[in-house]
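Below is our example:
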Amino acid sequence: MRVLILGGTGVISRCIADQLLDAGHQPVLFNRGSRKQLFSREMEWIIGDKTKPESFRQLMAGQRFDAVIDMISFNAADAAQTVETFRDKTGQLIFCSSTAAYKRPFRTIPVREDEEALCDSDAFPYAYHKAEMERYLQKVIAEGTVPITIIRPSLTFGEGGVNLGVLRQNRNIVHRIQQGKPLVMFGDGTLPWSFSFAPDVARAFVGAAGNERTFGKAYHATSEELHVWDDLYLEIGRLIGHEPKLVHFSTKQLMSGKPDLFAHLYYEKSYAGLFDNSKIKQDIPGFEARMTLSEGLRMMLDWYERDNLAIDEEKNLLEDRLAETYGRWCGELKELLSN
Protein backbone atom coordinates (compact mmCIF):
# COMPACT_ATOMS: atom_id res chain seq x y z
CA MET A 1 0.00 0.00 0.00
CA ARG A 2 1.01 3.59 -0.60
CA VAL A 3 0.25 5.39 2.67
CA LEU A 4 0.51 9.14 3.18
CA ILE A 5 1.38 10.33 6.69
CA LEU A 6 0.48 13.94 7.34
CA GLY A 7 3.21 14.85 9.80
CA GLY A 8 5.51 11.87 9.70
CA THR A 9 8.31 13.13 11.95
CA GLY A 10 6.50 13.25 15.31
CA VAL A 11 6.94 10.86 18.22
CA ILE A 12 4.30 8.38 17.02
CA SER A 13 4.36 9.09 13.30
CA ARG A 14 8.06 8.34 12.80
CA CYS A 15 7.38 4.88 14.29
CA ILE A 16 4.42 4.48 11.92
CA ALA A 17 6.66 5.24 8.95
CA ASP A 18 9.30 2.70 10.03
CA GLN A 19 6.69 0.00 10.71
CA LEU A 20 5.02 0.57 7.33
CA LEU A 21 8.40 0.05 5.66
CA ASP A 22 9.00 -3.10 7.71
CA ALA A 23 5.62 -4.44 6.58
CA GLY A 24 6.48 -3.90 2.92
CA HIS A 25 4.35 -0.79 2.38
CA GLN A 26 5.32 2.53 0.85
CA PRO A 27 5.08 5.40 3.35
CA VAL A 28 4.93 8.94 1.99
CA LEU A 29 5.70 11.72 4.47
CA PHE A 30 4.16 15.17 4.17
CA ASN A 31 5.72 17.98 6.23
CA ARG A 32 8.07 20.93 5.93
CA GLY A 33 11.04 18.63 5.28
CA SER A 34 13.23 20.00 8.06
CA ARG A 35 13.74 16.69 9.92
CA LYS A 36 14.81 14.19 7.26
CA GLN A 37 17.81 13.29 9.40
CA LEU A 38 15.48 11.34 11.71
CA PHE A 39 15.35 8.45 9.24
CA SER A 40 18.16 6.13 8.26
CA ARG A 41 16.19 4.64 5.37
CA GLU A 42 14.96 6.21 2.16
CA MET A 43 11.39 7.56 2.26
CA GLU A 44 9.24 9.40 -0.21
CA TRP A 45 8.63 12.99 0.91
CA ILE A 46 6.18 15.66 -0.15
CA ILE A 47 7.37 19.01 1.18
CA GLY A 48 4.77 21.59 2.06
CA ASP A 49 2.71 23.34 4.71
CA LYS A 50 -0.83 22.18 5.52
CA THR A 51 -1.62 25.58 7.06
CA LYS A 52 -1.53 27.02 3.52
CA PRO A 53 -4.70 25.42 2.08
CA GLU A 54 -4.35 26.42 -1.56
CA SER A 55 -0.76 25.28 -1.98
CA PHE A 56 -1.59 22.12 -0.02
CA ARG A 57 -4.41 21.25 -2.44
CA GLN A 58 -2.14 21.93 -5.40
CA LEU A 59 0.57 19.63 -4.00
CA MET A 60 -1.95 16.82 -3.64
CA ALA A 61 -3.54 17.28 -7.06
CA GLY A 62 -3.13 14.09 -9.09
CA GLN A 63 -1.96 12.08 -6.06
CA ARG A 64 -3.56 8.78 -5.00
CA PHE A 65 -3.04 6.88 -1.74
CA ASP A 66 -4.41 3.63 -0.38
CA ALA A 67 -4.68 5.32 3.02
CA VAL A 68 -3.97 8.74 4.54
CA ILE A 69 -2.93 8.96 8.20
CA ASP A 70 -3.52 12.44 9.63
CA MET A 71 -1.37 13.09 12.71
CA ILE A 72 -1.61 16.90 12.61
CA SER A 73 -5.32 17.72 12.79
CA PHE A 74 -6.20 19.27 16.14
CA ASN A 75 -9.67 20.68 15.50
CA ALA A 76 -12.67 20.35 13.22
CA ALA A 77 -11.35 22.81 10.64
CA ASP A 78 -8.07 20.88 10.31
CA ALA A 79 -9.96 17.63 9.82
CA ALA A 80 -12.35 19.19 7.30
CA GLN A 81 -9.40 20.32 5.20
CA THR A 82 -8.06 16.75 5.16
CA VAL A 83 -11.45 15.25 4.29
CA GLU A 84 -12.08 17.69 1.44
CA THR A 85 -8.55 17.37 0.05
CA PHE A 86 -8.47 13.56 0.00
CA ARG A 87 -12.12 12.57 -0.35
CA ASP A 88 -11.52 11.30 -3.89
CA LYS A 89 -7.81 10.52 -3.51
CA THR A 90 -7.74 7.69 -0.98
CA GLY A 91 -9.48 4.54 0.11
CA GLN A 92 -9.32 5.48 3.82
CA LEU A 93 -8.65 8.37 6.18
CA ILE A 94 -7.16 7.58 9.60
CA PHE A 95 -7.20 10.39 12.18
CA CYS A 96 -5.17 10.63 15.34
CA SER A 97 -7.38 11.87 18.16
CA SER A 98 -6.72 11.46 21.90
CA THR A 99 -8.21 9.93 25.01
CA ALA A 100 -8.10 13.52 26.30
CA ALA A 101 -11.19 14.08 24.13
CA TYR A 102 -13.38 12.15 26.57
CA LYS A 103 -15.62 13.99 29.01
CA ARG A 104 -14.52 13.61 32.64
CA PRO A 105 -15.39 11.94 34.96
CA PHE A 106 -15.52 8.68 33.01
CA ARG A 107 -18.58 6.44 32.94
CA THR A 108 -16.50 3.25 32.74
CA ILE A 109 -13.18 2.04 34.20
CA PRO A 110 -11.31 0.73 32.30
CA VAL A 111 -12.73 3.15 29.75
CA ARG A 112 -14.70 1.62 26.87
CA GLU A 113 -14.95 3.69 23.69
CA ASP A 114 -18.63 3.33 22.91
CA GLU A 115 -19.84 4.06 26.45
CA GLU A 116 -18.19 7.45 26.91
CA ALA A 117 -19.20 10.97 25.94
CA LEU A 118 -16.88 13.49 24.31
CA CYS A 119 -15.63 16.60 26.07
CA ASP A 120 -18.12 19.49 25.88
CA SER A 121 -16.22 22.16 27.84
CA ASP A 122 -13.56 24.48 26.44
CA ALA A 123 -11.82 24.83 29.82
CA PHE A 124 -9.08 22.54 28.48
CA PRO A 125 -8.82 23.68 24.84
CA TYR A 126 -6.74 20.76 23.53
CA ALA A 127 -9.33 18.22 24.71
CA TYR A 128 -12.30 20.29 23.55
CA HIS A 129 -10.94 20.85 20.04
CA LYS A 130 -10.07 17.16 19.63
CA ALA A 131 -13.65 16.36 20.68
CA GLU A 132 -15.00 18.89 18.18
CA MET A 133 -12.86 17.25 15.51
CA GLU A 134 -14.38 13.89 16.33
CA ARG A 135 -17.94 15.28 16.26
CA TYR A 136 -17.26 16.59 12.77
CA LEU A 137 -15.77 13.26 11.68
CA GLN A 138 -18.79 11.36 12.98
CA LYS A 139 -20.98 13.45 10.67
CA VAL A 140 -18.74 12.55 7.72
CA ILE A 141 -18.89 8.87 8.73
CA ALA A 142 -22.71 9.07 8.80
CA GLU A 143 -22.67 10.46 5.24
CA GLY A 144 -20.78 7.39 4.07
CA THR A 145 -18.75 9.28 1.48
CA VAL A 146 -15.26 8.26 2.64
CA PRO A 147 -14.07 5.50 5.03
CA ILE A 148 -12.77 7.05 8.25
CA THR A 149 -10.99 5.46 11.23
CA ILE A 150 -10.28 7.32 14.49
CA ILE A 151 -7.51 6.24 16.88
CA ARG A 152 -7.23 7.68 20.39
CA PRO A 153 -3.80 7.27 22.02
CA SER A 154 -3.40 8.06 25.69
CA LEU A 155 -0.30 9.75 27.13
CA THR A 156 2.47 8.39 24.89
CA PHE A 157 6.22 8.64 25.35
CA GLY A 158 8.81 8.12 22.64
CA GLU A 159 12.09 9.32 21.19
CA GLY A 160 11.84 12.99 20.29
CA GLY A 161 9.00 13.58 22.73
CA VAL A 162 8.95 16.50 25.16
CA ASN A 163 6.15 15.26 27.45
CA LEU A 164 7.77 12.94 30.00
CA GLY A 165 7.39 14.11 33.59
CA VAL A 166 4.97 16.19 35.64
CA LEU A 167 6.69 19.37 34.40
CA ARG A 168 7.33 17.71 31.03
CA GLN A 169 10.97 18.06 31.97
CA ASN A 170 12.37 14.90 30.33
CA ARG A 171 16.17 14.79 30.78
CA ASN A 172 15.82 16.93 33.93
CA ILE A 173 14.31 13.93 35.73
CA VAL A 174 17.53 11.92 35.43
CA HIS A 175 19.64 14.94 36.38
CA ARG A 176 17.59 15.66 39.51
CA ILE A 177 17.59 12.05 40.68
CA GLN A 178 21.35 11.82 40.21
CA GLN A 179 21.87 15.11 42.08
CA GLY A 180 19.58 14.05 44.94
CA LYS A 181 17.13 16.86 44.15
CA PRO A 182 13.39 16.39 44.80
CA LEU A 183 10.94 15.81 41.97
CA VAL A 184 7.44 17.26 42.02
CA MET A 185 4.56 14.76 41.75
CA PHE A 186 0.91 15.77 41.48
CA GLY A 187 -1.73 14.46 43.88
CA ASP A 188 -0.45 11.73 46.17
CA GLY A 189 1.14 9.80 43.30
CA THR A 190 -1.19 6.80 43.61
CA LEU A 191 -3.57 7.54 40.73
CA PRO A 192 -3.73 4.46 38.45
CA TRP A 193 -2.27 4.91 34.97
CA SER A 194 -1.04 2.85 32.04
CA PHE A 195 1.93 4.57 30.42
CA SER A 196 2.13 4.00 26.64
CA PHE A 197 5.09 4.12 24.27
CA ALA A 198 5.21 5.17 20.63
CA PRO A 199 6.26 1.85 19.01
CA ASP A 200 3.18 0.16 20.51
CA VAL A 201 0.76 2.93 19.54
CA ALA A 202 2.14 3.04 15.99
CA ARG A 203 1.07 -0.59 15.47
CA ALA A 204 -2.55 0.49 15.78
CA PHE A 205 -2.25 2.91 12.87
CA VAL A 206 -0.38 0.40 10.71
CA GLY A 207 -2.89 -2.34 11.54
CA ALA A 208 -5.81 -0.06 10.69
CA ALA A 209 -4.45 0.98 7.28
CA GLY A 210 -6.47 -0.76 4.57
CA ASN A 211 -8.39 -2.74 7.20
CA GLU A 212 -12.09 -2.55 6.33
CA ARG A 213 -13.10 -3.75 9.78
CA THR A 214 -11.91 -0.41 11.16
CA PHE A 215 -13.95 1.78 8.79
CA GLY A 216 -16.34 4.10 10.62
CA LYS A 217 -15.00 3.23 14.08
CA ALA A 218 -13.00 4.82 16.90
CA TYR A 219 -10.46 2.93 19.03
CA HIS A 220 -8.14 3.26 21.98
CA ALA A 221 -4.53 2.28 21.41
CA THR A 222 -2.88 2.24 24.83
CA SER A 223 -0.86 0.19 27.22
CA GLU A 224 -2.80 -1.94 29.70
CA GLU A 225 0.06 -2.43 32.15
CA LEU A 226 -1.23 -1.06 35.44
CA HIS A 227 0.90 1.43 37.38
CA VAL A 228 0.48 4.49 39.55
CA TRP A 229 2.05 7.86 38.78
CA ASP A 230 4.81 7.55 41.39
CA ASP A 231 6.02 4.48 39.47
CA LEU A 232 7.14 6.69 36.59
CA TYR A 233 9.88 8.30 38.69
CA LEU A 234 10.55 5.28 40.88
CA GLU A 235 11.29 3.14 37.81
CA ILE A 236 13.66 5.74 36.34
CA GLY A 237 15.44 5.77 39.68
CA ARG A 238 15.72 1.99 39.64
CA LEU A 239 17.14 2.02 36.11
CA ILE A 240 19.86 4.56 36.95
CA GLY A 241 20.59 3.18 40.40
CA HIS A 242 19.44 6.14 42.52
CA GLU A 243 16.28 6.37 44.63
CA PRO A 244 14.26 9.50 43.75
CA LYS A 245 12.94 11.95 46.34
CA LEU A 246 9.32 12.92 45.62
CA VAL A 247 7.32 15.88 46.92
CA HIS A 248 3.57 15.95 46.32
CA PHE A 249 1.40 18.95 45.44
CA SER A 250 -2.34 19.08 44.82
CA THR A 251 -3.19 19.24 41.14
CA LYS A 252 -5.40 22.29 41.65
CA GLN A 253 -2.56 24.20 43.33
CA LEU A 254 -0.20 23.49 40.45
CA MET A 255 -2.77 24.34 37.77
CA SER A 256 -3.93 27.58 39.40
CA GLY A 257 -0.32 28.77 39.78
CA LYS A 258 0.83 27.97 36.23
CA PRO A 259 -2.05 26.81 34.00
CA ASP A 260 0.01 26.82 30.80
CA LEU A 261 2.19 24.08 32.26
CA PHE A 262 -0.19 22.17 34.54
CA ALA A 263 -3.73 22.43 33.08
CA HIS A 264 -3.34 19.01 31.43
CA LEU A 265 -2.83 17.47 34.89
CA TYR A 266 -5.95 19.08 36.34
CA TYR A 267 -8.35 18.47 33.46
CA GLU A 268 -7.07 15.15 32.10
CA LYS A 269 -4.68 13.37 34.43
CA SER A 270 -6.61 13.82 37.67
CA TYR A 271 -8.62 10.80 36.51
CA ALA A 272 -7.45 7.20 36.19
CA GLY A 273 -5.74 6.53 32.85
CA LEU A 274 -6.98 2.97 32.29
CA PHE A 275 -8.36 2.08 28.86
CA ASP A 276 -9.89 -1.12 27.53
CA ASN A 277 -8.29 -2.36 24.27
CA SER A 278 -10.84 -5.11 23.58
CA LYS A 279 -12.34 -3.32 20.59
CA ILE A 280 -9.08 -2.72 18.73
CA LYS A 281 -7.87 -6.26 19.47
CA GLN A 282 -11.04 -7.61 17.88
CA ASP A 283 -10.65 -5.65 14.64
CA ILE A 284 -6.85 -5.58 14.41
CA PRO A 285 -5.74 -9.13 15.22
CA GLY A 286 -2.38 -9.22 16.93
CA PHE A 287 -2.52 -5.66 18.27
CA GLU A 288 -0.98 -5.52 21.70
CA ALA A 289 0.99 -2.97 23.68
CA ARG A 290 4.11 -5.05 24.33
CA MET A 291 6.51 -2.53 25.85
CA THR A 292 6.66 -2.54 29.64
CA LEU A 293 7.21 0.62 31.64
CA SER A 294 10.78 -0.48 32.34
CA GLU A 295 11.51 -1.19 28.66
CA GLY A 296 9.94 2.06 27.51
CA LEU A 297 11.82 4.18 30.04
CA ARG A 298 15.08 2.43 29.13
CA MET A 299 14.39 3.47 25.52
CA MET A 300 13.94 7.07 26.67
CA LEU A 301 17.10 7.04 28.81
CA ASP A 302 19.11 5.65 25.90
CA TRP A 303 17.79 8.45 23.70
CA TYR A 304 18.69 11.15 26.26
CA GLU A 305 22.24 9.81 26.45
CA ARG A 306 22.67 9.19 22.72
CA ASP A 307 21.48 12.67 21.72
CA ASN A 308 23.10 14.37 24.73
CA LEU A 309 19.89 16.17 25.66
CA ALA A 310 20.42 19.41 27.55
CA ILE A 311 18.94 20.30 30.91
CA ASP A 312 15.97 22.71 30.80
CA GLU A 313 17.34 25.24 33.27
CA GLU A 314 14.08 27.20 33.57
CA LYS A 315 12.12 24.10 34.60
CA ASN A 316 14.97 22.95 36.82
CA LEU A 317 14.81 26.26 38.72
CA LEU A 318 11.01 26.06 38.94
CA GLU A 319 11.21 22.56 40.40
CA ASP A 320 13.84 23.75 42.92
CA ARG A 321 11.52 26.54 44.04
CA LEU A 322 8.51 24.24 44.29
CA ALA A 323 10.51 21.78 46.40
CA GLU A 324 11.69 24.60 48.71
CA THR A 325 8.10 25.80 49.10
CA TYR A 326 6.99 22.26 49.92
CA GLY A 327 9.68 22.03 52.62
CA ARG A 328 8.51 25.28 54.24
CA TRP A 329 4.87 24.15 54.18
CA CYS A 330 5.78 20.86 55.84
CA GLY A 331 7.69 22.68 58.55
CA GLU A 332 4.85 25.13 59.20
CA LEU A 333 2.28 22.33 59.23
CA LYS A 334 4.32 20.29 61.72
CA GLU A 335 4.62 23.31 63.98
CA LEU A 336 0.90 24.04 63.73
CA LEU A 337 -0.13 20.49 64.54
CA SER A 338 2.30 20.17 67.43
CA ASN A 339 0.79 23.17 69.25
User: Anything to note?
Assistant: The CA atoms of residues 235 and 294 lie 7 Å apart.
